[in-house]
Amino acid sequence: MLKKLGVLVTVATVLWATGSALAFPDKPVNYIIPFNAGGESDISARLQQPYFNKITGEDLIIQYQAGAGGAQAWSVLNSQPGDGYTIMGTNLPHIILQPLLQKPGYETADLTNIYMFHFTPDALLVRADSKFETVQQVIDAAKETPGALTVGGTATNTANHIANQIFSNMTGAQMTYIPYTGTGATIPALLGGEVELLWGYTTVAAGQGDKVRMLAVAQDERHPLFPDVPTFKELGIDMVGGAYRGIAVPKSTPEEVRRQLSDIIGKINADPEFIKEMEQAGFAMLNIPYDGMEAFMSERQKIYEEVARQLGSLK
Amino acid sequence: MAFDLGSVLAQALSPFNLLLALLGVVLGTVIGALPGLSATMAIAVLVPFTFAMDPASGLIMLGAIYTGAIYGGAYAAILVNTPGTPSAIATTFDGFPMAKRGDGDLAMTLATLASVVGGVIGAIALMTLSPLLANIALAFQSSEYFWLAILGLTLIASLSTGNVIKGLIGGAFGLILSMIGVAVVGGDVRFTFGSSALLGGIDIVSALIGLYCIPVLIDLVARPDRHLEPAPLGRGFRFFEALGLCAKNAVNLFRSSVIGTLIGILPGAGGSIASLVSYSEARRSSRHPERFGKGEPAGLLATESANNATVGGGFIPTLVLGIPGTPPDAVILGALLVQGIRTGPELFTQQSGIVYIFMFGLLIATLMMLPVGLLIGRYAYRFIVNTPKSLLVPLIAFMTVVGSFAIHSNPHDVVVMVLMGVLGWLLSIGGFGPSPIVLGLVLGQIAEQGFIRAYMIGGARGNFGGQLLFDRPISWAIVALIVITLGLPLLRLLRGKSQNGKEARP
Q1: Which helix (H) or strand (E) holds A63?
Q2: Under 8 Å between Cβ of B190 and B199
Q3: Do A126 and A212 form a contact (C-beta atoms < 8 A)?
Q4: Which of B195, B329, B457, B475 to mutate to test the interface with A (most CBs of A within 10 A)?
Q5: Chain B CB within 8 Å of residue A39 CB
Q6: Does B267 sit within 8 Å of A67, measured CB to CB?
Q7: Does A224 fall in a domain?
Q8: Are A187 and B322 spatial neighbours (Cβ–Cβ below 8 Å)?
Q9: Which residues in B lie closer than 8 A to residue A39 (C-beta atoms)?
Q10: Same domain, yes or no: A153 and A299
Q11: In sequence order, what are the residues at sequence separation of 6 or more whose Cβ sits closer than 8 angstroms to the Cβ of residue B78?
Q12: Residue A58 falls within a domain, yes or no?
């Protein structure tokens, strides 16, 4: 172990010595995850870690600063040094909905996103032995007795909650949304029969295997891991979305460094091995670089604002 | 079974894995002993290192750290009345009074023995009954969590004998504290007074450190007497005395370990509820319930065996269902995923026995806790007893600040810790103990969410009563326990009075 470390240190020193002074990065980069370890944000960051090292020769050091659904970390991002060596995970819809609904100590515009690299598409799940085989059956049942079907999801005013509202808007199906403390808590609720359906993600279905059945997924195209599961679009329901994950830097980070970081994350995202690992875990790839961020964010902002107004929580 | 026991044992017992297990236990114990530094954090930091090892070795090390950290939580609880982790809350009830009166050495040895027993029973359940027991995680739904939390809250009544009103006021205050922040159900922002720092609510660990530790610190400064009564020199571990106590409490130990394993399986419960429920059960079935809370070894044995049993129990739903039983399990599950290992019942039949190597490793790590714990415990005890107060107070004060900062690397948690500490001290002058407040804080969220969910689901199905209680046999059983816990002391009181009356007659 020690020997290995020694070799690593030597290699790192040699790389550092030979690299040109202008090269970015020339020391380890701190990657702050605003959630607890073990969640989707953490897992995808862990998958990025080795590729970051492969491309830059530097380490990506993952830290956790959980609290207030991410707001604790996001509200202090801009007070971090803007040298490119501190980056932070960001999540949609969180960073749009939180400033809209509460006073989380930051504004959406305060966060300088440099790349959105994947999303976990919304998926409607049932138990493997459920009577529901298709989305249409769910819609019919929900229309027959509005509100009698229960559908679980993670917390209130979240991606799952919004998915339920959009689904209801587009199909007219009324279901009772039951919020749980986290993705982890929703799974026993579905498997144990407390709720009939679950708004989850492809990652949940990937983790639970044949114990759950995914009725549809909110992607443009079918997820490679679930070739038999239709998209909502195929079923005539124009629903594409989920929880998006990206990376932001402090506002003071120079334009040049922002672009360099965006390029590095883009390179990781293009690695076929990385794509394979991500999709195997149920993630869906997404490539929104620094230049495309403004258009992407304003599009999502519009969608979330509308739904938030409907949920009656927008002041 | 599709694996070869010999090769599994050979791998689990390889010198490298044994070394990792030992390292993990030592590291875990030290981290657990420092308030604020948690098993979750230790595991999260070490996960990247395990990627360089083969999966089984990595898992063994993570499991060893986890079990060591849960055990280490007892140190601060016994020696400075501060539960380092929520699972050690109930350990303070009898552990600290024991240390106070000079039996700290015995308390440390008892905690070690109980933790090993609990850990071994939990690990054996994990190895033998996993697929069967995993279904418990699914049978427990919102209404059961609600009743379980209420059962935990009934402990307030028995904890505050002679002063039930003050206990209830403290509990109600804790319940109000638990509401601060954004509500999971409904998304309302409650009691934050416009401060964005309070959106995340009051962190339980920083409240624990503040409420328990700061009053002790203030007392240390304000009073001239020693922190702990020192043990006479040359008394050793009091190992055989402790072993004798364990033998006397064999039923208690076994019951508490089973309770710990079962509650560990429940993803929404965790070590704090496990040790509280087993404490309450130990007290109820004891012939001397009045001794509990004043340094009764049986209480200490119950809580420490229960919280270490949750380690094995928590891995059951994690490995079988892919549902983490506890927060450290969630981190380990994430590490498994990154390594490309899929959880599920098939993990127990295929996967070339990696799960079995891990489980044997966990068992070995638990057994290693005995010598490691006795040695570190003895050192820690001597250190706390022999260090002059002028050094001890600043040292502990420093640790409380570091510990509460380390939870989320957020200075806000330090402020909460200090405020709760001053509050706890003021309340203790008025005769209010910290435990009812903490119980309210820890259990309030579980009770509230469980009730509201049962209400919403019951509403959707037009059958609220059935959803909450009437159609749910497990809830019946928990409600029966609540009735017994609340009713028995009353009954005893009445019987005692009538007996006294008889004796008083000539």
Answers
A1: strand A60-64
A2: no
A3: yes
A4: B457
A5: yes
A6: no
A7: no
A8: yes
A9: 330, 334
A10: no
A11: B91, B92, B95, B96, B98, B99, B104, B107, B108, B111, B300
A12: yes
Same domain, A178 and A143: yes
Residues of B in contact with A280 (CB under 8 A): 340
> Given this model, what pLDDT does residue B2 score?
43
A4 lies in a domain?
Answer: no
Round the average pLDDT of chain B to a whole number and report it: 86
The shortest C-alpha distance from B257 to chain A (Å) reads 24
ipTM: 0.84
Average pLDDT over residues B262-266: 91
Cα A234 from Cα A135, distance rounded (Å): 11
- Distance, in Å, from the CA atom of B243 to the CA atom of B114, rounded to the nearest integer, reads 10
Q: Which residue has the tokens 């939870």?
A: B407
In a domain, A295, yes or no: yes
pTM: 0.86
Looking at the 3D structure of chain A, how many domains does it have?
2
Q: Are residues A157 and A303 both part of a single domain? A: no
pLDDT, mean of residues B268-284: 86
Contacts of B199 in chain A (CB under 8 A): 68-69, 71-72, 102, 104-105
In sequence order, the β-bridge partners of residue B181 are B190
SS3 B190: strand
**CATH code at A46?**
3.40.190.150
Residue B493: C-alpha distances to residues A89, A107, B116, B487, B490 (Å):
59, 60, 37, 10, 5
* Residues A50 and A110 reside in one and the same domain: yes
End-of-domain residue from the set A184, A202, A217: A217
Residue ranges making up the domain that contains A173: 120-217
Asked whether residue A251 falls in the same domain as residue A285, the answer is: yes
Judged by DSSP in three states, B82 sits in coil
